[in-house]
Structure formats: structure tokens, C-alpha cells
Amino acid sequence: MFVVSATVVNGADTAVDRKPVLLFELPEPCNTPDGCTLADDGNLILSVPNFNNKALKQQGVIDKDAPAVMLCIDKNNKVSTWYEFKKEDLQADTGIVGPMGCDFGPDGHLYLADNQLFSNGANKSRLLRIRCENGKPVKCEVIVEGFIVANAVVWKGDTVYVSETILSHPPKETAGKGKVPLYSGTYAFNIDEFKNGPVKLAPWSAANPDPHLIATYATSGRIGFGADGLTVDGEGNLYCGIFEDGVLYRTRFDSAGKVVDTRVFAFDAKMACCDGIFWNKADNTIYVADMLQNAVQAVDMSGNVTTVHRNGDTTGADGLLDQPCEVHVRGNELIVINMDMPWESDLLANKKIDKPYTVSAIKLQ
Predict the structure, then answer these.
(1) Are the C-beta atoms of residues 161 and 154 closer than 8 Å to each other?
(2) 285 and 299 in contact (C-beta within 8 Å)?
(3) How far apart are CA 161 and CA 79, in angstroms?
(4) What value does the mean pLDDT of the chain take?
(5) Which architecture, in CATH terms, is 2-363?
(6) What is the predicted pLDDT for the residue at 3?
(7) Do 46 and 338 meet the contact criterion of CB atoms below 8 Å apart?
(8) Is residue 77 scored above 80 in pLDDT?
(9) Of 96, 37, 43, 48, which Cα lies nearest the Cα of 276?
(10) Mean local confidence (pLDDT), 214-240
């Protein structure tokens, strides 16, 4: 396991503005979209945790919670329900499920991060598996327990990687103020481990970390959210983006799948935040949702950062970015999920939850 921190800045100040367009509006109950992935049939599967429920009720916009749901978006951008969570799928202590990052495994099932942070920060988050038959979801089950913030999910061969955004809560008086480092990490699980019931993670200890933890990141603590997006490139390298610092790390493996090293891959002043990330085979580029700046960044394989698009505060009604949290490539378009879940911070461009709830698209050359 490696503990790493960022110390370098690279890249020229380049930009190519590709204006996003509105791909589609989400149904009104879907107030907080998050992670997404492509199914084998080309449909986009989208997680909708509806974390904005509390704020919208306080504002009088809604009078009851909208349930979390998994959506399907077909090639014509028609939106339908893919999976409705059942009572038995909810976390027993909190009574909710918070679907975020997701990816299909080699077994054809969907693996899904369940973030319980906003209801209970005491290691209640989980990795779920939605079993599929003939491409259709039939059942949800728990396969890993004990995260604080299960966030991104990505498969490489028979191993699934999950980012843990907070390994340990900093003291309340310093949380999110940049006074002490925040520790976060990436876990790895082999598919065979799920045959005998849920894997139970041990609470993080710097002296004795859980053996599934393959990398630990020490970051600024300025927001309180660390490891976030994950992606794998064509050579099998794993990348992890740091939400609060806009740093992209690369983990390399040997031929046996063991970690060789984890190092800073991209760190540029114009990339303030790394939320969702996605490596695109066609142009060998990693695209980054820069949530803080309402921006999308592109990182080449030398670690150089280019701003694809950035805009100010907006409702997103015209397709402009409205607190983007996830990116994914479908054909020649970069799909951008707009989370629109602001908090009070001078660092954040988005200032208000506002309808419509949208997904944007940027044409790739």
C-alpha cells in the first residue's frame, strides 16, 4: 500500500471550448443524478440517489422524499426506470440507499457504490451488486460493508476497484478547513471473494490498514472529500481523481496484478476538482468532471490538462454545465451528468439547486 501526496504542477494553459448541449432533462422526481455506465446493449445506466431531498423539502419545493432509483437511457435518449430499490435493499440502520458510481462486472451484473455518508457517517456505506438475467436487473445484494463513502466503481479483469472518499473523519473543528490532511484511498476486491457472503472492511488504521486497501492519498483537507473518480487506461493502469484538490493519481501494476507504485499523474492549477473521470480509448484521453468550476477537463497521457469547457452558474436548461459530477463517452459524444447539489462554499461555482435536472453532451472530434 502506498501513501502519496501531490507536490508538482504541470501543463500549459491551453483551452478548446466545446460548448455542451442539452442531451435530455430528467423526470422531476430525479433531483440528484450521479454515476453512470454503459451496458452491453449501448444503453446508459444512471444512478439517481436524490441526495437533494432534504434541501428541497426545506425550500418547500417537494413535500416528501423522492426514492433513489436506477435509470436506463436508450440510444434515442428515452429515459425509463431500470431498477427500483426494494425495502430489503435499504441499509438497515439508515433506511435509505445512495447509489453512486457503478460498473458492469465480467459476470454481467452491475456493481454499485452505496453512499450512506449523508445519513450516517459511521462506516455504513456499501458495495452492492444488482444481479442481471438476460441484461435485466432482478435482485440487489450487499457484497462489501464498512465504507464511510463508497464512491466510484471500476472493473479491471476479475478485480473491482472502489474509491473511499474518507478513510477516517478528521476532528470536527478542522473538517473541510484545510488545517489537517484528509486521508482517502482505493480498495480492490477479487470477484471470487464475493462467493461467501459480504466482505466486511475493518475501520481504517494507518498502522494496520485493511489488506484490500491498495493506495492511500493524503490531501489538503480544504473540503473534506478525497478519492473520487476511477478509470482504467488501455495499458491497465488505474487512475484516481482527488475531489478537493483536482489531482489525478496513477497506479501501475506488475504482470501478477500487484501494485508497483502510485504517483501523481496530473496536477494543474486550472483543474480545481476531480469528480468523475473516464478514459476514452478513441483519443487516449482521460476526461474529468471538474465539479467546483462547472467545467470538464481533458488530460492526455503525458499528464497535460486542457479545459474542454467551463461556464458560470446556470440552471442547465440550455445544456450548460450545472455542477458536473460524472463523464462518460458514448459514440462521439461526451456525456456529462449534472449533479446540481451545491453547498455553501466560495470554491463552488454552482450556488442553487434549480430545475430542470439535466444531462449534457459535448461532441468529441
Answers:
(1) yes
(2) yes
(3) 28
(4) 93
(5) 6 Propeller (2.120)
(6) 57
(7) no
(8) yes
(9) 37
(10) 97
Q: Give the separation between CA 275 and CA 254, rounded to whole angstroms.
A: 27
Measured in whole angstroms, how far is the alpha carbon of residue 6 from the centre of its chain?
Answer: 20
Strand pairing category for 44-48 and 69-73:
antiparallel
> Residue 53 is inside which H or E element, if any?
helix 53-58
Separation of alpha carbons 239 and 265, rounded Å: 8
Q: Residue ranges of the domains in the chain? A: 2-363
Quick one: how far is CA 278 from the chain centroid? 10
What cell was used for 314? Answer: 446556470
- Cβ partners under 8 Å of residue 34, min gap 6: 46, 47, 48, 49, 99, 100, 101, 325, 326, 337, 339
CA–CA distance, 153 with 240 (Å, rounded to integer): 11
pLDDT in tens, 30-54: 999 999 999 999 999 999 999 999 9
Distance in angstroms (rounded) separating the CA atoms of residues 191 and 199: 11
d(CA 234, CA 220): 30
At residue 121, the pLDDT reads 80
pLDDT single digits (tens) 287-311: 999 999 999 999 999 999 999 999 9
Q: pTM higher than 0.90 for the full model? A: yes
Give the strands of the sheet with 110-114, arranged side by side: 99-104, 110-114, 125-133, 136-147, 199-200
Omega cis (within 30) before 356: yes
Q: CA–CA separation, 185 vs 147, rounded Å?
A: 11
Q: Which three cell numbers stand for residue 204?
A: 481504517
What is the DSSP secondary structure assignment for residue 89, as one 8-state letter?
Answer: G
Residues 156-206 pLDDT 10s: 999 999 999 999 988 776 655 667 899 999 999 999 999 999 999 999 999
